[in-house]
Amino acid sequence: QEILEKYHDLFTLQWEGVIGNMCTPSQADWEQLLTNCSAFLFYGMERFMSHVLLDWLAAMNIPKCHLVILLDLARSQQSYQRITNSDSHKSCLRIALEKPTETAMLLSLTGVGSVIAIQWYTSLEENAERLETLFENLLSFGKTTGQTVHVLQK
């Protein structure tokens, strides 16, 4: 929340989404957010693809979304329990499609221009640092996504 407030003036007036854990977005919410955005940010627990339906995403056409930033793969005891229970009902192939590289490929096939995603499990605090770096470089400094990713890699 602090990071969003800090960079609020640099966002467009059309900034919308779901913040916090007050409600869980429905598949219709995910669809509306992804199809009506030019950039999409997911900052949450576990794998992004564990929150959306694979069949639904694979059938989408979202060419207006130029950038997807996935700051996922954060883990807590509660999120680990949830994902373990959820995964027990999925095939190994389905779980494999939720990995970062596969998720980026699926998003690319739906028309997304660029995907920035982490590839290893992390904490919410580390993702907050990444988000701060992303916003600072993309919004304050006006760097390209490639330049920003390069900064993140350092």
From TrEMBL:
Entry superkingdom: Eukaryota
UniProt xrefs under InterPro entries: CFAP46
GO terms classed as biological process: axoneme assembly; cilium movement involved in cell motility
Extent of the signal sequence: none
Protein name as annotated: CFA46 protein
